[in-house]
Amino acid sequence: MPNYSKGRLLKIGVYIPALDKSYISGPDKYQMNLAHALADLNEVELLLLHHRPAVHHLDINAKHVIVGDRKPISWELKLRKVKLDIVHFNVIYAVPRIFFPILNCKKVVTVHGDEHWLKEISGKNYSRLNYRIRRLIEPLLCKHINIIIAVSYDLKRRLVKFLKIPDSKVKVIHEGVSSIYKPLPNASYVKKKYSISLPFIFHVSNLSPKKNPQTLLKTFSELIKDGFDLQLVIAGARWSNTGISSIIDSTELTRKIKVLGYVPEHDLVSLYNAAEAFFFPSLHETFGFPVLEAMACGTPVVTSNAYSIPEISGDAAILCPPLDYMAFKNAIEHILQDAKTRKKMTSKGLENAKKFSWEKCAKETVKVYKQLL
To answer: Smaller CB count within 10 Å for the chain: N or C?
Structure first.
């Protein structure tokens, strides 16, 4: 066995196809921030594995390895020639990557989601062919994975059950919140930029049923009925579709709801800062980046008590059952009306967010690498 304690760097390949695409999801954000933090530690020889010249350029000390097409077997055989110690994936590639057992190195996989195992969350998608294939193949592939990293203890408990694997095979490493998310002395420009004319409640998500849009809009409607002169500002991809537009129109509050779509990250930070409160009534989260991002900006958070959210938010947010729109309404009203509560929540949120850093995530990940080898 190589002696890594005497100067030899671990040769780590991070499979990061997110570099090749324009749209960035939460798991993609994890890969990019982890790669940055791993490079900063200078404890590994880092290789970024993807399929074509990158759209996103990470200014870090790492070599890009373009592995070409995604055809089964050929991709794995090309990667064998790189002679990695460890390849780190961002999902169990049950459908397109069923041949990754061919890889002649240790394999680490970070798992971010499990909704394909949860009928109550995935709904009609539960019976889709690709979901059924994933549930069938993932437990088999786990025999060829050395370590699984879960992004929360809540997720780990379910993975051990669903994948039928030993508890010791799953390590929990919380994700981080980027240092760009912080209190700003003046974020008012962002209201003018996006034509926000009133104090506003902020929400960030990529529209999907699990983000609970009906409760989001119903809660806001109840706030307006109680006489609050507010706007609801929504940022995130996929909100501009006919289904959600009809829901918004049915609230008769179209003028008070602003759907921004995707916004640049620096504007996102300013929107968190400028908001009266951040509202996130999600039905299912395995981590929940927006909750921590809002806290890191000093914004009071009202969110649901579902899945991993209590673990991540600690005592720094007001938690309510995800379908109880009246409880959410009362919580937001309390924040709007009580300056002491706002100040206390801001302080607790800032302290809670400090517990989650990418440096800490990278150090714990390197520890897993070293233990594995």
So the answer is: N
pLDDT per position as a tens digit, 230-264: 999 999 876 655 566 666 666 667 789 998 988 99
* Residue 364 main-chain phi, psi, to 5 deg: -70, -30
Collapse the DSSP code of 83 into the 3-class scheme (helix H, G, I; strand E, B; otherwise coil) and give the result: coil
Q: Distance of CA 110 to CAs 30, 72, 114, 161, Å?
A: 10, 21, 12, 17
- The predicted pLDDT at position 360 comes to 97
Question: Following DSSP, what letter does each residue of 136-193 receive, concatenated?
Answer: HHHHHHGGG-SEEEESSHHHHHHHHHHHT--GGGEEE------TT----S--THHHHH
Only one residue has tokens 């070409």, namely: 68
User: Which ranges of the chain does DSSP label H, i.e. alpha helix?
Assistant: 26-41, 74-80, 119-122, 129-141, 153-163, 189-193, 213-225, 242-250, 265-274, 289-296, 309-313, 325-337, 339-353, 358-372
pLDDT, one tens digit per residue, over 322-350 is 999 999 999 999 999 999 999 999 999 99
What's the pTM value of the predicted model, to 2 decimals? 0.91
The domains found in the chain, sorted by start residue, are: 4-176+357-372 (3.40.50.2000), 189-353 (3.40.50.2000)
148-192: per-residue pLDDT in tens?
999 999 999 999 999 999 999 999 999 999 999 999 998 889 999
Q: Phi, psi at residue 10, to the nearest 5°?
A: -70, 135
Cα separation of 286 and 151, whole Å?
A: 7
- The tokens for 121 are 């969350």
In the structure, how many helices (H) and strands (E) does the chain have?
A: 14, 13
